[in-house]
Amino acid sequence: MAASEHSIEVLDNQSRSRYEIWVDGVLAGIEGYEIADDGVITLLHTIIDEDFSRQGYARAMVRGILDGMRARQQQLRPLCTYVQRFLTRFPEYQDLTAPLPEGAAHRVP
Prior knowledge:
By secondary structure, the chain is an alpha+beta fold. The protein is about 20% helix and about 30% strand.
């Protein structure tokens, strides 16, 4: 079944420094993050449970995270390669990307 046929919730679990995607009440995946001193959120890694993989849940989670960041006027640094590829595929979210701090190494997606 496709992601659109289920009840999906994307939540910020601040106590665990991760976003979570819940599908029909079951934890389906996470996106770890860190918040820098400048307030920018670094998205670290996307993990989707094998039972939910290849069904669009990673995309739904990242889209939910970025939509929430836009609503809260937050910025991100995409360390996660999945998020990097998402931003390439969906350039309408690239305005949420913060510049790298001085002296930081640049990662190429």
